Amino acid sequence: MTDRDGGAGYSFSGRLFQTETEAAWVFVGLPAEAADEIAEATTPGRVFGSIRVTARIGSTEWQTSLFPSREFGTYLLPIKRAVRERERIDTGESADVWICLIEE
């Protein structure tokens, strides 16, 4: 479920997954509704069409970027190892996520 946080951000639950590349990044995909709203509200102009956000899982908050994925049909939020370790979550597990777009 996606919840628009009083116009300031998005809250949702998502399962962490790892890519099958050498770098082995870990991501959570945004729900379609949130991805559609973000795509309409922004003009990606950064590297790889990324969109700057503040993200929070549990008590850990950090700044990162969303990346559009044709393969998954949504934006992907990278979840750093430090965040996963601090919040004790791993690939295959669900996390409650909050994101807020950073105005540029």
CATH architecture: Beta Barrel
**What is the CATH H-level superfamily?**
AF2212/PG0164-like
Query: Mind summarizing the main beta sheet?
Result: 8 strands, antiparallel
- Helix proportion range: 10-25%
Number of helices: 2
Count of distinct structural domains = 1
Top-tier CATH class? Mainly Beta
| Spatial strand sequence of the major β-sheet | 1-2-8-5-6-7-4-3
Q: What is CATH's topology name?
A: Elongation Factor Tu (Ef-tu), domain 3
Helix-strand topology string = EEEEHEEEHE
Alpha-carbon Rg, integer: 13 Å
Low-pLDDT regions: none
Total beta strand runs: 8
Question: Features of this protein?
Answer:
Elongation Factor Tu (Ef-tu), domain 3; 2 helices; 104 residues; alpha+beta
Question: Nutshell version of this structure?
Answer:
The protein is an alpha+beta fold.
Write up this protein:
There is one protein chain. The protein has about 100 residues and is of the alpha+beta class. The chain has one domain (about 5-100): AF2212/PG0164-like (Elongation Factor Tu (Ef-tu), domain 3), CATH 2.40.30. It is built from 2 helices and 8 strands; from the N terminus they run ββββαβββαβ. The protein has helices at about 30-40, 80-85; strands at about 5, 10-15, 15-20, 25-30, 50-55, 60-70, 75-80, 95-100. The protein has an 8-stranded antiparallel beta sheet. The longest helix is centred in the middle third of the chain and has 10 residues, at about 30-40. The model has no long low-confidence stretch (mean pLDDT about 90).
